[in-house]
Structure formats: C-alpha cells, structure tokens
Design brief:
alpha+beta, 18 helices, 24 strands, 34% helix, PBP_dimer
Length: 613
C-alpha cells in the first residue's frame, strides 16, 4: 500500500505540473494574441510617441537698416548652455554607489566644466559665477546664452551632461546709435520646460515691428534613439519650413544720426540743460533723417540698458514752444491778407490782453517795426497786435491744419499728441498766450513739422521713419506715404520763409534778428528762436527762472532741402549756450551742407529793415 500511494502521489504531481505548464502557455498565448491583435496599434503608437519629437526650426529675425543699407540691428546664430545641478548630483551619487572603486567628484566635474567654458568662450565669463550656477541647488540653470555654435558643440562632446539650445544673438554694432529709435530685442520664456524661446522686440521699433521682423518658425517631425536626443537618419518627415523675418529699412541716416547725437550731448552739457532733443527732416517728403536726444541707452550690453533712458523724449515729451510758434501767426496773417512783410506797425512796449499785460523781452518805447521785423526780432507785442487782426477762429483753424494737438503717426512708441485746448474752451487771456507759444504744448517732431510745411510750399507731410520692408527673397515693399495736407498757399509759404530769413541777419540800428549765430556762410537760412517759461506746478504760475529754449530752421531757405528743430529743457539761461539754440542749429546745418553737398544759395540773404525811423 505504501508503494502504490507513493506512485500515485508522483503521478498526481506530474499531472499538476503539466496542467500548470499548459495553463501558463495558454495564458501567454492569450496575452500574445491580446498584444499582437487588440493592443498592437495602441502600443506601437505609444512607442512611436516616445521616440518621435517635433523639432523647431527657428526663423531668422530680420535686420534693421538705415537709409543707406547700414545695419543698425541684426541677428547672429548662437547657443545657450544649460545645466541641471540637482539631477547631476543624483546621477553621480548613484554611480559612486554602484562603483565604489571609480568615485566621481561633483566639485571636480563642475570645476572642469567652468574651466573649459572659459577657455572656449572667453575669459569674460566669470569662473566664480559659473561655479555658483553649476553648484547651485536649482533644477535648471543657464550658464550662458551667447555661445558660438562651434564652441558649444565641442563643449557638448566633452560634457554630455550640458544642455544645448538654439539661440540668436541680437547685435547692435553702433551701440547707442539710434537706440531710441531702434530699441532692442531679447529672449522671452514661453513655458516652464525651457524648450521654447523666441527673440522678441521689447522696446522701440524692435517692439512695434516685431511681427514683421520675427518671421514664422518652422518644425519637423523626427525619431530619436531611445534615451538620447540623437536623430535617427532617414526618419525626418512633415517638414514645415521656417519663414525668415523681413528687414526694416529706416529713413534715418546713420552718419547724420551719430553726429546729431554727439552734438545733442555736447550742447546739453554746454548749456547746463536737463536734456536736449533734435530732429532733422526732409523738407519735401517728411522723412526723418535724424531723431536724437542727449541721453540714450546701449542695447548691446546689459549694463547699458537703463530703463530710465529707453523712452524717446523727441516724440514722447511735449513742451511749450515759445516764440517758435509765432510762425502760426505769421502764416495766418499773410494767408488772410491781414498784413504784408513790409507793412509798418507802431509797436508799444506792452499790450493788454484781457486781464493780463504782455511785454517784450527787451524794454522799449513805441517802435515802428515792419511785419518782418516783428517776427525777426520776436516781438510779443507786435505778434499779438497782428494775431488780434487774424482773429481766434482763424488762428485755431491754422493750428489744426498744422497738426498741433494730434499725433504725427510717425510710428514710434509713446508718441505724445501735445496739447492745445479747443477754441470753445479758450478764456479771454488764452489768446494772449497761444500766438506767442505759451498755453499749448508740442513735441520737437511736431515743431519741426510746422517748418516742414513752410519749406514744402505750404503742404504739410506727416513725418515717417520707416521707409520700406524687405522680404527674405529681396522683394521690397515701400511704406505707404502719409496723406499730405495743404495748410497755406505756396505764395504765403514763400513770403513767410523770406521774412524768417531776417532772424539770422546782423545789421546796425536795431536791425539785427534774434539769431545771427544760426547763419551759415554761403546759404540762406530761415528760422525762428523760442524761449518759453515753464509752468511751475507747485507755485501755480509760470516760472521766471526755468525755460524751454527752442529753434527751428530751414536749410537752404531759397531751395529747401532740410528742416531742423531742437529744444533744451531748463538750460542755465545765463550761459552763452543757454539762452539760444542758434549755435546748435549752425553746427548741425553745417554738417548737413557738407554731407549732402548742398549747392550754395545763388544769392546772399538780403538785409532788410526791421525797425524804421
């Protein structure tokens, strides 16, 4: 019985084992059927997703050029190098645990990376800063964003733990040159995984024209080796090519812009002014050849990007123009037949307007002044006498035609419209202020625009600073020209220009104008000086010590090519260069005449009587 029982137990075990084997084979078969049949497509899709990547193809940002093709801003290809300190610590710790005989030092490794980066990328990288980033407690840090591609490739080969990303570096070869116009662009994060970056404009035309300059990035689907970012050859598909950005061509002349910027800084310092701004425009087209301030920023260096200097006062900061605004009265008086250039006016030392008494900048009794003399000597009293004959409604209409109180539409950020009250809100004393340039405000660009109207035979052409867009294939698309506005007749414009030539004349017997220093040998110059009291908000009245000093002029007056306008904010009025911007105008006009080989005027400026016996 014992032997039979043992044999029976053995047979039972054999049967059980066979049953289990059969069951296992059946289960495996069923699983295989499920995987290969029902789940095959899903699993294949999941595997493909794990190795398929969408690779971005960056678009090259367009350049910004001056009117002669000089690059003011352009992009060069670069690489960003990044590191994952926490992950690297864990990987080294795990390696050391598994290989006690092959210990790796985290500090030695990071020191080697920092040392090699300085060798390949330049000593301007601080080893101390690099080590601080490499040994930080962060999950992800950027070590540099401007590595040269070949150097980045060598570093990646030597240190696979580095992350390499495509970048483009925006170059500004002129540094501060036209920075107030061009602005600057930089990289901007768009998600948290550090995979998507775009170079975007942040200030100036880089910002306003970002869509044109940026282009459209492309992409391509590729397959990569498992656990690596190595693309498997032949797996590239679904190519969406990048469309590079357009170049933007400006009306700015880089050489003139450089000179004007230097002169603005020089004269601001010489005059003791808080600031100085200047604009140079084409007399016929309104194209801006230079738009400068005494202070600006340097987009080419992080240290030069002072946010306080990134605005453009020439278009953002209005001021009361003072006597430069008398050109409005001059044009209106001639246009409506109120007076003629040679008509004589008995001008007393002061005049009462509503509840105010207005006098001239110099004490005098009654003077017999020609209309030309009233404006050439900048008589407030004479101007108001003529303005009273023009009448407020026609004066207001002239301001409107000249675009005062409205943005010019030049296409720069933060442009101010200035301010002028509608006629319906004028009080009795308002008309004692406006004709002499107080009680309204404008930018230096708007001020120059009034004189562009004179230079262009009475037609105002709103200024522009972008000349054209140029596609990657070279196709050129000129910017739409602004709609011109007829302000006064050609005859009125010519007569007003001729009257304002006397501003720069030097003659005996009270016949000198207010700005002989603006005269340029060989050329007829029309222009106007201005001195405006600044309003003291604390005192609630106009200051007797703080002024805006202005000048606007036309070169040459007999065959206008350029208009130049400039303003000082609160100069030291007692200094030689603080009470007039005429010397500043002279220097800019002289440079322009030489640079553009302007023909000399056919005749010298005639000396005309301003005060008659």
């Amino acid at each position: 019985m014992t032997k039979r029982a043992a044999g029976t137990d053995h047979r039972v075990r054999v049967v059980v084992v066979r049953f289990l084997l059969i069951a296992s084979l059946v289960a495996a078969g069923l699983k295989l059927v499920q995987v290969q049949g029902f789940e095959a497509e899903a699993l294949a899709s999941r595997a493909e997703r794990q190795r398929v990547q969408k690779i971005p193809i960056p678009a090259t940002r367009g350049s910004i050029l001056d009117r002669n093709g000089v690059e003011l801003a352009f992009s060069v290809e670069a690489r960003a190098l990044a590191f994952q300190p926490n992950l690297q610590r864990k990987q080294i710790a795990e390696f050391n645990r598994k290989h006690p005989d092959k210990q790796v030092s985290f500090d030695e490794e990071t020191a080697a990376i920092a040392r090699r980066m300085r060798e390949l990328l330049g000593p301007q990288l601080s080893e101390e800063d690099l080590l601080a980033k490499l040994r930080s407690d962060d999950a992800f840090v950027y070590l540099t964003t401007t590595a040269e591609p070949a150097a980045a490739r060598r570093l990646k080969e030597e240190f696979p733990q580095l992350n390499v990303e495509y970048r483009a570096v925006r170059e500004y070869p002129g540094g501060t040159l036209a920075a107030n116009v061009v602005g600057f662009a930089n990289w901007r994060m768009e998600d948290k995984d550090h995979q998507k970056h775009n170079l975007h404009g942040l200030v100036g035309l880089e910002m306003l024209r970002d869509n044109d300059l940026s282009g459209t990035p492309g992409s391509q689907m590729v397959e990569t080796e498992e656990g690596a970012d190595v693309i498997i050859p032949g797996t590239e598909r679904d190519l969406q090519p990048a469309v590079d950005g357009k170049d933007i061509e400006l009306t700015i002349d880089a050489d003139l812009q450089f000179f004007v910027q230097q002169k603005a800084a020089e004269y601001a310092q010489r005059s003791g002014a808080k600031s100085a701004s200047v604009v140079v425009m084409d007399a016929k087209t309104g194209e801006v050849y230079a738009l400068a301030n005494d202070k600006t920023f340097d987009p080419s260096t992080r240290g030069g990007r002072d946010p306080n200097l990134m605005s453009d006062p020439a278009v953002t900061t209005p001021f009361e123009p003072g006597s430069v605004n008398k050109v409005v009265t001059a044009m209106a008086a001639l246009e409506y037949g109120v007076t003629t250039p040679d008509a004589v006016h008995a001008v007393p030392g002061s005049i009462k307007v509503a509840d105010r008494v207005v006098g001239d900048a110099w004490d005098h009794g009654t003077l017999n002044m020609t209309t030309t003399g009233v404006f050439a000597k900048s008589s407030n009293v004479g101007t108001l006498m003529i303005a009273n004959q023009v009448r407020p409604e026609r004066f207001a209409d002239m301001l409107g035609k000249l675009g005062i109180g409205k943005r010019t539409g030049i296409g720069l950020p933060g442009e101010s419209p200035g301010k002028v009250l509608p006629q319906s809100q004028w009080s009795g004393s308002t008309y004692g202020n406006l004709p002499i340039g107080q009680g309204l405000s404008m930018t230096v660009l708007q001020m120059a625009g009034m004189y562009q109207t004179l230079a262009n035979d009475g037609v105002r052409v709103p200024p522009r600073i972008v000349k054209a867009k140029i596609a990657p294939d070279g196709t050129r698309l000129d910017e739409p020209r602004p709609e011109p506005v007829r302000v006064v007749s050609p005859e009125t414009a010519r007569k007003t220009r001729d009257m304002l030539r006397a501003v720069t004349q030097k003659a005996p017997n009270q016949n000198s104008g207010t700005a002989p220093a603006a005269a340029l040998t060989g050329y007829q110059i029309s222009g106007k000086t201005g001195t405006a009291q600044q309003f003291d908000q604390a005192a609630g009245r106009y200051s007797n010590s703080k002024y805006w000093i202005t000048f606007a002029g036309i070169l040459p007056a007999d065959n206008p090519r350029f208009v130049i306008g400039m303003v000082y904010d609160t100069p030291a009025y007692s200094t030689p260069d603080g009470h007039s911007a005429a010397p500043f105008f002279h220097d800019v006009a002289s440079f322009i005449a030489q640079r553009y080989n302007l023909p000399l005027s056919k005749e010298p400026t005639p000396v005309v009587p301003l005060v008659v016996p």
